[in-house]
Amino acid sequence: AQSVTQLDSQVPVFEEAPVELRCNYSSSVSVYLFWYVQYPNQGLQLLLKYLSGSTLVKGINGFEAEFNKSQTSFHLRKPSVHISDTAEYFCAVTPGNYGQNFVFGPGTRLSVLP
Amino acid sequence: EPEVTQTPSHQVTQMGQEVILRCVPISNHLYFYWYRQILGQKVEFLVSFYNNEISEKSEIFDDQFSVERPDGSNFTLKIRSTKLEDSAMYFCASRTGRSTEAFFGQGTRLTVV
User: Which of A33, A42, B16, B23 is most enclosed, with most CB atoms within 10 A?
Assistant: First the structure.
């Protein structure tokens, strides 16, 4: 079974400042890793994913994440945030077999302050 | 761009009533899912469906829940006798057999009163 931890439930940050949202996972098998974003009153939108290859992956809206296998982490970063980045961010994992379900972390609420 | 469509966007029902939540997955996708998110809480897996049968379900998905793909395009979640604690946002998702990301619909907000 897999589990996902997002240690920070809320992250306030000023506009144009850098941000890092932390994600750690546990799994006995290899996994694929994802970050989804949920804007207020909306569904889940894929930000980026790690399947294999380069451990640094770039996503939409200037976000990137780095997979660290030894630390079982997949932290999300953005060098300069905008007010419009205010949202809930979910880290998710799925086993490396097609069709298996996704396990989500509890989410981190990013609040960008003017 | 193809997307997963869910209807209705918001449904209010009385406790004990049956509800059916509808989803139209992306047309060439083979794996279908229902998740729920109670207000302010994490996204929880309910059930996955492949090849016209349930492939996996969580402990939340008890006998009150059922899923169906009645006509090859719609994917429905039925709750037979709703409880107050069923109030949540329900998300449908689908994915192909060859990619690994899931595409989520916008959700149906179910309010049981």
Answer: B23
